[in-house]
Specification:
With 142 residues, the chain is mainly beta. It is built from 1 helix and 10 strands. The chain has a single domain (28-141), classed as Rieske Iron-sulfur Protein. This is Rieske domain-containing protein.
Length: 142
């Protein structure tokens, strides 16, 4: 019986993956949410046209920005700077195609179309969210 237990324990230990630091961003936790944006409403109607973005607060960690790539394709990213823990100044502002962290200790900025860093010393890009469109409704979720 002890041999069977030992064998079982050894198999369980061998089947576990190591945590080598590639699990994702250590600063931003995964928060489950789902936001439905009706593009027939004035506050979201600009998403019907390529090159426009909308900021949605009170969803995700600090809100998200959604950008219309055109042809019913969208990108959506978390507005908390991905390169430090959320704090009182880590909510990014968006101007044009750039999201910028206002914290005085860094100068991180990111491209909102693909979430990649533009400036600063951070190693992480913006946290991406899932986007699906059905009719006039865009659903953003994590």
């Amino acid at each position: 019986m002890k041999k069977i237990l030992f064998l079982f324990a050894a198999l369980v230990m061998l089947s576990c993956e190591s945590d080598d630091g590639r699990r994702g961003n250590p600063f931003l936790i995964d928060i489950s949410f789902q936001a439905s944006l009706n593009t027939d409403l004035p506050q979201y109607s600009s998403l019907n046209f390529a090159g426009n973005s909308v900021i949605v607060r009170n969803q995700g960690i600090r809100g998200f920005v959604i950008y219309s790539l055109g042809n019913n394709q969208y990108s959506a990213f978390e507005l908390s700077d991905p390169n430090h823990a959320p704090n009182s100044c880590s909510t990014m502002t968006v101007s044009g195609l750039t999201a910028t962290c206002p914290c005085p200790e860094d100068s991180n900025s990111y491209d909102i179309t693909f979430g990649q860093p533009k400036s600063g010393s951070g190693e992480y890009g913006m946290k991406a969210y899932r986007v699906n469109r059905s009719g006039s409704t865009i659903v953003v979720s994590n």
